[in-house]
Every structure is written in C-alpha cells, then in structure tokens.
Amino acid sequence: MIKIENLTFKYRNSKKNALENIDLIIEDGDFVGIIGKGGAGKSTLTYAINGIIPHHYQGDYYGSVKIDGDDTFDKNPSELSLKIGSVLQDIDSQMVSSVVEDEILYGLENFAIPKDEVEQRLSSSLKELGISSLRYRTIESLSGGQKQKVAIAAILALRPKVLLLDEPTSELDPKSSVQIFQLLRELNKKHGITIIVVEQKIMLLSEFAEKLAVMSEGKIVLNGKVRDVMKHSSELESIGINCPRVVTLSNRLIDRGVDIGKVCINLDEAEVMARGLIHG
Ligand SMILES: Nc1ncnc2c1ncn2[C@@H]1O[C@H](COP(=O)(O)OP(=O)(O)OP(=O)(O)O)[C@@H](O)[C@H]1O
Ligand SMILES: [Mg+2]
Hints:
It contains 13 helices and ten strands. It has helices at residues 42-50, 52-55, 77-83, 91-94, 100-110, 115-128, 144-156, 174-191, 202-208, 226-230, 233-238, 245-255, 267-279, and strands spanning 2-11, 19-26, 31-36, 59-67, 70-71, 84-87, 162-166, 194-198, 211-216, 219-225.
C-alpha cells in the first residue's frame, strides 16, 4: 500500500508549492489514473512516490510517503525502484543505452537478476509490448512511441509490484495508446500489479482506470472511483479537464431529472442507456 499523508513540497528555487497537502492512499492491485492540466503537479507527485523526491530533487518537504509502511525518506532509492518501476515523462532522460536489447539488459544486470532468467525476461517483455523486432535496433533510430514501448518493456522486465507511468502514451497514436492501456489492464488483472498512470487522455482513463486522482495547482481536488469522479463534470471542466461526451451528456440528463440510473463513463454504457431510453 502507498500512503501519502499531508505531503507538501516546494522545489528549491521555486516560490510556490508544487504539491500541497496531498493525502492519497493507493491500495495493492489498484489501477489509478492521475489527471490534471499542465503544471498541476502530476509529475512531481510521481517523483514523491518513487523517491526521486526527496532523494534527487531537494526542496521544502513536509508530510510523508510510505510504501508498505516504509517512509521513502529513509529508503534507498534503488531499493524503491525495484518495487516501484517508473516510466518517466521525459523518456530520453530515462534511456541509458544505445541499443534496445542493452536498455533492457541494463536494468536486469543492475538488479542482479539470475543469469538463467535474463533471456526469458528480455524476450517476454519485448513480446508483451509487441516490439520483438526492435531488439537489435539503436535507440536513436526509434520513433517517440517506440521509445515509450522500450522504456515500458525495460521496467516490466524487472517485474515490479507497482508500475508508475508518467504520460506513457504522449507520443503514441490512438491505436497504440489503447494497446498500452490494454496491456496495463492485463498486468493489473492477471499479475496483480498496481498501476499508477498519469494520463491526459481522459477517454483512456475512463475506460481503463478504476480510480482517478484529479490534480489542480498542486492539490488533489477530486479522488475516488472513476464513476464517482465523473459525476463532477462541471468541476472538472472548470479546472481545464474536458470530460468524455458521454459523461457530460449523461450528467446533463441526470441534472434534468431523466432516470438513467448512473453516469455513463464509456460508449458501451452510453449505448445501453440510449437503448433503455428508446425502449422505455
Ligand atoms: N525541477 C523543478 N524545479 C522547479 N520547479 C519545478 C521543477 N519541476 C516542476 N516544477 C514546477 O512544479 C509545478 C508542477 O510541475 P509538474 O511537472 O509536476 O506538473 P505536471 O502536472 O506534471 O505538468 P505537465 O502536464 O506539463 O507534465 C510547476 O509549477 C512546475 O513549474
Ligand atoms: Mg508532467
């Protein structure tokens, strides 16, 4: 379990808090989406979860982040990174090798994964991401989206308990973005890996995430099950988050007293709602 209590952080040389009074609990096996406008503090929150803050970025730090009861403040960052695999927003800063295969081997060797497991982990993580054909390619020859997949494969090979991804689909086309989220769902459901994903595409989160944490100006302003958060579509709009059309439409119907039961969060649910309204 990840337990964040009353966390406030201000980067050194910065005038305002990047995080302010954050309280958040992420249970084992959760699939949590983090959303918010540019500069809301999403990446900073991911740094606080994986220990980059306070171990790499210094600043004023109040409150606590505990991973399975251990305060990240007292934890060795590399120990943390084995438990919480992170895919950073700036993929290039994450890449350490010049060839795809080496990028994945680097992590496996760094964490002293037994030699007889290495090839299996390497080939299966490439396969999971559908990039086995890129194994011997140079990183610099890859597209942004391919690099994102390599970064995810490298983390996956380490089999972390928690996967923390900061905008992992920003360079991907819609089809590949959905594929990544399908993979995340599978990792979550089949292997019980906790997924924490910062994502701007709310459609993806409403389809795949179970919980949402909405950030604005360093604070978490809404937090809970996706459907409960989506009930607040006007509040979301007011902080610059455009809800999927089906959400806005079903909220409007509910506001006008039409009995549709619950707010629809995806197209399938909207279809059921529409059929119900037509057929009575
Ligand atoms: N290294 C840093 N030093 C000083 N201030 C920073 C640093 N990184 C981020 N900030 C500031 O902290 C605040 C939160 O930034 P952060 O990158 O966490 O937001 P974000 O929600 O991830 O934005 P984006 O959607 O653009 O990725 C912003 O005001 C930003 O300018
Ligand atoms: Mg960010």
